[in-house]
């Protein structure tokens, strides 16, 4: 396995989209293109499947030095109301574009720290969204909570508004690791929010764990996993730490790079962690995720309905995902768009009555074919093709995969590729062989985290 790590541990995307953001054709994108694409998808799918909404709530009271998210650090809670007013104004702009009532199938609050906002302000935000929407049957509403500031009132308020899934960022329980990433968070805090959520009636609780953090050893990782298993969350995200200080600057330079485990050590953390999680009843789903058998994510994998987008893996799918808030990314299936990344500029644009998208990409026919193949690999660990779903460089892709086949990572038949259990850890590498835009436009500088 170590020789495989040496061979395949290269920079690569996580594929929450295709094309990935660095390869979007911004120069041929416009807000008009985006709005036309949104309307096309909305009119075709709103009645049948509804839409998804992602709301980016960017504020955090302190900087976690492992975090690569778009956020604003402040302890001034006076920022809450003006920001939420802008989000509601942005939603009104989409309502005007739709011309009729949207049906919400999925809604996710991400950040930043959504529980930075008071329960009352979250209620006002969501009631403002729901007042102009229809809620689909069996909706999927979820949010990300910080165990240190999520209160029982937060949980009850969101539950009363239809939320049934909560995700808590744990990362790691070792004191030395927590200090290095500036995320001091006692186990008792995680225990409290997990038990409160279950007491209130949430059907799914997820914990996020990160391996490969500074000072990580298997002993520290095992301690974190066993502490997590005392609470038995319904699903787990088990992420590799993405060290990208050249993108996020000082926020990821809170420790020396020599403090990070090597690629070989990281793979040991993953392999041992995966083995322990499976021994304790968890099943690997897609990439980076584990779930118990009763959880919807596992059930959707079995049924073939699992989906992946900018919100991560989901047990349901809509073609249209509208991102609200600064830096949010939206997806109409035929186009992507990202909002302004500055809080102040985002609010200024919205106040002018303009949908605040500033960059994006309109997918061509080839993009759509490749997107589906990569989605198949990321969700189902296999893909197939025929004349309609082939592409010019498919022979090159197959040639690249032959070495992976020899290494036991994939199985290739006449028109099908399957990722083996051994190859699961290298899913990103397999998907990269289909990434035509990256192959044709090799980046001159490093823009992605390492695949391992």
TrEMBL record:
Task: Please give the coiled-coil regions recorded for this protein.
Answer: none
Q: Which InterPro entries match?
A: Coprogen_oxidase_HemN (IPR004558), Coproporphyrinogen-III_oxidase (IPR034505), Elp3/MiaA/NifB-like_rSAM (IPR006638), rSAM (IPR007197), rSAM_horseshoe (IPR023404), rSAM_sf (IPR058240)
How is the cofactor bound here?
Binds 1 [4Fe-4S] cluster. The cluster is coordinated with 3 cysteines and an exchangeable S-adenosyl-L-methionine.
Q: Where does S-adenosyl-L-methionine 2 bind?
A: 66-68, 112-113, 171, 183, 208, 242
Q: Which residues bind S-adenosyl-L-methionine 1?
A: 54, 111, 144, 329
Class of this enzyme: oxidoreductase
Primary location class:
cytoplasm
Keywords (alphabetical) are: 4Fe-4S, Cytoplasm, Iron, Iron-sulfur, Metal-binding, Oxidoreductase, Porphyrin biosynthesis, S-adenosyl-L-methionine
Question: One Pfam family this chain carries?
Answer: Radical_SAM
- Write the Enzyme Commission number(s) for this entry: 1.3.98.3
Listed binding positions for [4Fe-4S] cluster are 60, 64, 67
Keyword Cytoplasm recorded: yes
Assembly mode = Monomer.
**Do you know which PANTHER family this protein is assigned to?**
COPROPORPHYRINIGEN III OXIDASE, OXYGEN-INDEPENDENT COPROPORPHYRINOGEN III OXIDASE
What the protein does comes down to: Involved in the heme biosynthesis. Catalyzes the anaerobic oxidative decarboxylation of propionate groups of rings A and B of coproporphyrinogen III to yield the vinyl groups in protoporphyrinogen IX.
**Family named by the database record:** Belongs to the anaerobic coproporphyrinogen-III oxidase family.
How is this protein named in the record?
A: Coproporphyrinogen-III oxidase
Task: Recite the lineage of the species.
Answer: Bacteria, Pseudomonadati, Bacteroidota, Flavobacteriia, Flavobacteriales
């Amino acid at each position: 396995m170590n020789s495989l790590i040496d061979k395949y541990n290269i920079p690569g995307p996580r594929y929450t989209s295709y094309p990935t953001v660095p390869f979007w054709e911004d120069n041929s994108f416009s807000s008009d293109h985006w709005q036309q694409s949104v309307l096309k998808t909305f009119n075709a799918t709103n009645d049948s499947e509804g839409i998804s909404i992602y709301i980016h709530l960017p504020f955090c009271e302190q900087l976690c030095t492992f975090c690569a998210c778009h956020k604003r650090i402040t302890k001034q809670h006076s920022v809450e109301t003006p920001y939420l007013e802008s989000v509601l104004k942005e939603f009104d702009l989409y309502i005007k574009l739709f011309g009729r009532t949207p049906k919400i199938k999925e809604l996710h609050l991400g950040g930043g720290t959504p529980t930075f906002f008071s329960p009352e302000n979250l209620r006002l935000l969501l009631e403002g969204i729901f007042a102009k929407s229809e809620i689909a049957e069996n909706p999927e509403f979820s949010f990300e909570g910080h165990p240190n500031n999520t209160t029982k009132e937060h949980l009850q308020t969101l539950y009363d508004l239809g939320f049934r899934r909560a995700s808590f960022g744990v990362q790691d329980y070792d004191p030395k690791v927590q200090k290095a990433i500036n995320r001091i968070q006692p186990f008792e805090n995680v225990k409290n929010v997990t038990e409160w959520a279950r007491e209130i009636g949430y059907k799914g609780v997820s914990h996020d764990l990160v391996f490969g953090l500074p000072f990580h050893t298997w002993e520290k990782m095992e301690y974190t996993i066993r502490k997590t298993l005392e609470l038995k969350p319904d699903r787990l995200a088990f992420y590799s730490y993405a060290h990208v200080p050249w993108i996020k600057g000082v926020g990821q330079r809170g420790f020396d790079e020599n403090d990070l485990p090597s690629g070989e050590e990281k793979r040991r953390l993953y392999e041992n962690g995966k083995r322990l999680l499976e021994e304790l009843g968890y099943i690997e789903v897609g990439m980076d995720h584990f779930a118990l058998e009763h959880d919807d994510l596992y059930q959707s994998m079995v049924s073939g309905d699992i989906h992946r987008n900018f919100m991560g893996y989901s047990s349901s799918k809509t073609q249209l995902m509208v991102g609200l808030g600064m830096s949010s990314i939206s997806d109409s299936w035929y186009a992507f768009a990202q909002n302004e990344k500055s809080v102040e500029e985002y609010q200024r644009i919205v106040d002018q009555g303009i949908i605040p998208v500033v960059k994006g990409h309109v997918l061509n026919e080839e993009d759509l074919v490749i997107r589906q193949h990569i989605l198949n690999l990321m969700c189902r660990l296999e893909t197939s093709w025929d004349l309609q779903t082939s592409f010019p460089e498919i022979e090159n892709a197959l040639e690249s995969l032959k070495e992976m086949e020899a290494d036991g990572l994939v199985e290739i038949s006449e028109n099908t590729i399957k990722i083996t259990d051994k190859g699961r850890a290298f899913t990103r590498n397999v998907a990269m062989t289909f990434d035509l835009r990256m192959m044709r436009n090799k980046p001159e500088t490093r823009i992605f985290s390492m695949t391992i």
